[in-house]
Amino acid sequence: MHNFSLVHDDLPSLDNDEVRRGRPSTWAQFDEATAVLVGDALLAEALRLALSYPSPFVARELIQATLGMIGGQHADTKGIGDDLEAIHRLKTGRLFYASIACALWVAELPEPEQKPWREFADELGMLFQVVDDILDGDGYVLSLGEDGARKLADEAAERAQARLAAIDADTSVLEQIVAGLATRTA
Q: Bridge-partner residues for 20, per DSSP?
């Protein structure tokens, strides 16, 4: 699902990015029609895989996240609203959220026990996006300056770590992921 979102995000009609991770983006290397079809195929494959789990909640979670991400992308490209946090929580945050939420269903964690995990997941996507804005020099950097964006990233990392501390499980790997995201430079 993530790769689908990146292939489509790079398209000329969206972000018009010719480079992704130091290499030509899909549309730039092949053509726009191929990139649309590749993205569509990645979306279908992600849904096929999600539907292979015994619980329908895995697919439902992934579909809800995808719809949120698409809504955030639409709001971003059309300049709908000026709430950058809401756009980021949709555009990027929903897929980070789904990575945790789908795992909860796969692990068969009862729904009443999922809340602290979901609260963590919500902060994780925001942390990623704010740091991404800092690295790209856009988004929050344009509206708050680099120091303001860095403050937001630090606050998101603190909230994510606090959410992990409230979970009665070994969250050391997730703590390391949060620390790595908060300090990433590439």
A: 23
Using DSSP's 3-state secondary structure scheme, residue 74 falls into helix
> Which candidate, 161, 157, 186, places its Cα nearest to that of 171?
161
Strand (E) or helix (H) holding 19: strand 19-20
Question: What single DSSP character describes residue 12?
Answer: T
Which regions of the chain carry the CATH code 1.10.600.10? 56-183
The pLDDT tens digits of the residues spanning 61-91 come to 999 999 999 998 898 888 876 788 888 888 8
Amino acid residing at 27: W
pLDDT tens for 19-61 read 988 899 999 999 999 999 999 999 999 999 999 999 999 999 9
Please state, in angstroms and rounded to a whole number, the distance separating the CA atoms of residues 143 and 33: 34
Q: Please say whether the beta carbons of 36 and 8 come within 8 A.
A: yes
C-alpha 76/C-alpha 87 separation (Å) is 7
Q: Which CATH architecture has domain 56-183?
A: Orthogonal Bundle (1.10)
Helix (H) or strand (E) segment spanning residue 81: none
User: CA 62, 176, 179, 63: dihedral to nearest 10 degrees?
Assistant: 0
pLDDT at residue number 88: 87
Q: Enter the tokens of residue 81.
A: 């609203």
